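Q: Structure tokens for this one, please.
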Amino acid sequence: MRISIDPSLCQGHGRCYDLAPDLFGADDEGYATLLVPDGRVPADLEDGARLAAANCPESAVLVLRDAVTEEVTR
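A: Here is the predicted structure, written as tokens:
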């Protein structure tokens, strides 16, 4: 599984980094950043990635299938 952030949608609400602090951080302006290389989510953090995506009010967090990079959650 991979994750990404659509910077054109992120409004800096911070829910992603509050819910999954091992995957997401914040830049100097409070917008979400990825903490995992290439957006690759370790298996034990996949639930957190899904939770962050489901709770993003702007749908800026994307969860992608690793093999096909097909969007599965937005």
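A few notes: Strands lie at 2-5, 24-26, 32-34, 61-64, 71-73. The two ends are 14 Å apart (CA to CA).
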